[in-house]
Amino acid sequence: MASVKLTNIKKIYDNNVTAVHDFNLEIADKEFVVFVGPSGCGKSTTLRMIAGLEDISDGTLEIDGQVVNDLQPKDRDIAMVFQNYALYPHMTVYNNIAFSLRLKKVPEDEIYERVTNAAQILGITEYLTRKPRALSGGQRQRVAIGRAMVRNAKVFLMDEPLSNLDAKLRNQMRAEIILLRQKLDTTFIYVTHDQTEAMTLGDRIVIMKDGYIEQVGTPQEVFDTPVNLFVAGFIGSPQMNFLKAKLVQEGTGYSVEILGAKIPLNEDQVSALSRKNIKSQEIILGVRPEHTTVLFEKAEGAIECTIDVNEMMGSELHLHLSSANDDKIIVRLPTVDLTKEQRSSLAYGNRMYITFPAKVMHLFDPETERSLING
Amino acid sequence: MSNMTTDMASSRPKMKQHMGLKASRTIGNTLIYILLITISIIWLIPFVFIVLQSFRVESTHQVGYIVPQVWGLRNYTELFNSNFPKWYVNTFITALCTCILQTIIVLCMSYTLSRFRFKMRKPLMKVMLILGLFPGMLSMIILYRVLKDLGLTQANAVPGLILVYVASSGMGYYVSKGFFDTIPKSLDEAARIDGATRAQVLYKIILPLSKPIVIYTLLTAFMGPWGDYVFARYISNNTAAGMNVAVGLYGWLSQDQINKKYTMFCAGGVLVAVPVTVLFMCLQRYYVEGVTGGAVKG
């Protein structure tokens, strides 16, 4: 168990491509931090620098207060689970898990105890004599986790460990990682491109893009108060809707005008805008699909839209709509309360009306792409 | 009913077509087997001839028939009263030492070029590739001079030959590097995080996974010196104590010796072929896997 501190960490490759720019982050002891972002954002590179598998071009990396920039991976006291499991194919499951302990010359009795204990926790006791090729993807992933577990390392690193699993198994393993985290009670750094994994697993999420940190916060913080368009679009599924709108300052108040509808902002939003001395301007309005109300009849303040696609998801419908501005909007509509007539009216080309309250609106500057309220 | 009749009628041509395909496949396979058996027989004739001649005891010179009139082991027993055991030991020591040293060097070189990224890595590989294109014979004269200065010729030809065979072995890295490239790097990384040093990664993870290529390297490293004539002839320079079997046995085919030692030459040939043949037959599965694995995936 240990804290990890990254100060101005940079990764510049030999061809002068900078993969990670000035990465600053403090990870507390026993914290579960998730690095999330699209492919090529530098999340895996950062993790590999922490592991010692990539050289750090600049900056300082501390584990438990000790600078480890120049230490070999084996001397950093970390354990890592790889995306492709990286199990040794010529060894049995038992020998795979025992490998690191044998290198440390731990007595065989203790190795046996630690391996069987880990296997019991992970439910792989019956596979200990098998080779990795005789295991399913989920079982292999458990062995990979077991191999990391027995080392009792200070920091547990996971590089997209669930990416190679099918959707059902991924959900199951995700729950198991949450349980494992409670059992191990150590510092976790987890890399994923899947925002659902990030939201469900992390105490804190680090959202990255093009080698930069875009936002660091708890899952609730990054969901409720995204600091820019990228974070707003990346976190949440389906992603946040972005609409062209206008912010209007009227005396001490503010409102948002969109397609003839005028929505006054609430007190908190007004005070945040006033504090920053924001004037009337064009904005990008962000509204999450689950925060949008669908109306079947025209009402005051509602925005008229046309149905493009109706996706049946089981407990809810995902309606893809187009506004008069040609903004594309996705709405989540629970099916449980819909009448038969309402369902049949949700067909391609039909008109619908949507509204949303001020408190769920996110306002972004079209030029800087930063949030006018949280940025 | 009418439907059933139609179905049966339409299935008949399909059955005929199926039978036709089966017959043509059988004929094709038979022809291929006949061709392969013929080629094998042609290829085996010289070997069978030598084996039969080695058991001929009625005369020692070349004769115009293949099957011996009197069979015996005299040629083999006489071999042990000649220089043959010395040549055999010379060849075995040369081949064994070369085999071990060359395999270590080739595998270390291949692992380094496959896994490490360092400046001049690619130019180094290219230079070695180009150097490897020159025939080894070009360096023979200068090598002889160097070895002579070091006292490693004639009676001391064995260490000299080992030095020559092993010296350039690093250049034969292509096939095994190709094989190592197919082993995921994440295995190395996982092992390093587990606490292994680079050397431990090589012999605990990479080599056990590369059994075919290790055996391929061992076999080729053994067979090269085992059957070499040109360098061995040049460096031993007519000194019986430094000769290998190829050079020694060839000497028996000279005009003044051939009539007395022809059948002994055949017996020597058989004894030379036995260990390599046994080794090869036991390990040929790995040998083929090594060649194809390195070549296709590399």
CATH homologous superfamily descriptor of the largest domain in chain A: P-loop containing nucleotide triphosphate hydrolases
Helix content percent band of chain B: over 70%
Q: Give a short account of the largest sheet of chain B.
A: none
Under CATH, the topology of the largest domain in chain B can be stated as: MetI-like fold
Q: Do you know the CATH topology of the largest domain in chain A?
A: Rossmann fold
- Residues in helices of chain A, as a percent range: 25-40%
What's the CATH architecture of the largest domain in chain A?
3-Layer(aba) Sandwich
Overall SS class of chain A: alpha+beta
* Shape call of chain B: flat
Structural class from helices and strands of chain B?
A: mainly alpha
Estimate what percentage of residues of chain B fall within beta strands: under 5%
CATH class of the largest domain in chain A: Alpha Beta
The CATH H-level homologous superfamily of the largest domain in chain B: MetI-like
Oligomer: heterodimer
What proportion strand of chain A? 25-35%
CATH class membership of the largest domain in chain B: Mainly Alpha
Distance linking N and C termini of chain A: 34 Å
Cα distance, first to last residue of chain B?
A: 61 Å
Number of helices of chain A: 10
Number of strands of chain A: 20
**Most extensive chain contact?**
A-B, 23 and 17 residues
List the helices and strands and how they pair.
The complex is a heterodimer of chains A (375) and B (298).
Chain A: E1 4-12, E2 18-27, E3 32-36, H1 43-51, E4 58-63, E5 66-67, E6 78-81, H2 93-103, H3 108-122, H4 137-149, E7 155-159, H5 167-184, E8 187-192, H6 195-201, E9 204-209, E10 212-217, H7 219-224, H8 229-234, E11 241-250, E12 253-258, E13 261-264, H9 267-275, E14 281-287, E15 293-295, E16 303-312, E17 316-323, E18 328-334, H10 340-345, E19 351-355, E20 362-364
Parallel strand pairs in A: 3-8, 3-9, 6-7, 7-8
Antiparallel strand pairs in A: 1-2, 1-4, 4-5, 9-10, 11-12, 11-14, 12-13, 14-20, 15-19, 16-17, 16-19, 17-18
Helix pairs in contact in A: 2-3, 2-4, 3-4
Chain B: H1 2-54, H2 74-79, H3 84-115, H4 121-133, H5 140-149, H6 157-167, H7 174-181, H8 185-193, H9 198-209, H10 211-227, H11 230-236, H12 245-251, H13 258-297
